[in-house]
Specification:
two-stranded antiparallel sheet, 8 helices, 9 strands
Length: about 290
């Protein structure tokens, strides 16, 4: 894919260079004439069209590259059997985002995960956590109907392989927490004061894919950092959105020892970690 991209951009560059050369030659041959003016106007239009073509080509190649990455991730994730109904899978997170989560859980031996929002990613996380004894996943979700559906799927998934295996006490719970404003003038967020979340933690990994209204996620780090272990890792979906970029920037300004890295996945992914606690953190991708 990289080679195709380089060749395509190279062809556009050659075309653009040729047009510029033609402008110079044409102007020198028919300078100061009406024909020269007409020719120059025409060639300027051609140059503009080439620039537009170049920009659109880069955008389309970027989309194709991301889709190929997601396809590759889907193949990798196919080793986790999930026989779920189509109505459930329609709400799936992007495969490349789930793959990053999976790799971090494996490489860092994560045992306690807090996920904001829930869905197919919750199933994959639970499937991987089942390989670790006494591991747990806690999801916070404001949609009650979705809470019931996902919890039912998680219960079925845990029951499939764990019958008669009480030694592996992996748990996966989805809490229904409506969105409320804790103080006047404050943006609403999960009603974390309505339940004792501390009893489920502290957490090694925080996965941010909710609330569905993206601008509300800016409150995640200030409100939930107390639930994380010092060496915890934070993963954010929808990283291409300006609201998420703004949130990451604000968090890094507040927490000077934290670092962040962006990954060019289908929707963009940010990974954050405390550099003092993880000085040699091995991330899943370069």
């Amino acid at each position: 894919m990289k080679l195709i991209k380089e060749k395509a951009l190279g062809l556009v560059g050659i075309s653009f260079g040729g047009v510029l050369l033609f402008i110079v030659i044409g102007y020198s041959l028919v300078a100061r004439s009406e024909l020269a003016i007409t020719l120059l106007v025409t060639l300027v239009v051609v140059v503009v069209l080439n620039l537009v073509l170049f920009r659109n080509l880069r955008l389309h190649l970027d989309i194709i590259e991301r889709q190929l990455t997601a396809l590759q991730s889907s193949i990798v994730l196919s080793r986790v059997p999930l026989n779920r109904p189509a109505s459930f899978l329609r709400h799936a997170a992007a495969p490349d985002f789930i793959e990053i989560i999976s790799e971090i859980i494996r490489r860092r031996s994560i045992s306690k995960v807090l996920e904001l929002g829930c869905g197919t990613s919750s199933l994959y996380i639970t499937s991987i956590l089942k390989q670790t004894k006494n591991a747990s996943l806690l999801c916070l979700e404001d949609n009650l109907a979705w809470v019931r559906l996902v919890q039912s799927e998680l219960d079925s998934l845990l029951k499939e392989d764990d019958e008669g295996n009480s030694a592996n006490a992996t748990s996966a719970n989805v809490l229904h927490l409506p969105l409320v404003a804790m103080h006047p003038g404050q943006l609403p967020f999960y009603d974390i004061g309505a339940v004792d979340i501390d009893k489920y933690g502290p957490f090694d990994l925080l996965v941010v894919d909710g609330p569905s209204e993206v601008r509300l996620r800016e409150q995640v780090f200030p409100l939930l950092k107390g639930l994380l272990v010092p060496s915890a890792i934070v993963i954010l979906d929808d990283g291409d959105l300006s609201e998420i970029r703004k949130a990451v920037t604000n968090w890094l300004e507040q927490e000077k020892t934290w670092q962040a890295r962006y990954y060019r996945t289908i929707k963009g992914t940010w990974i954050m970690w405390n550099s003092e606690m993880n000085p040699s953190l091995l991330l899943p991708f370069p």
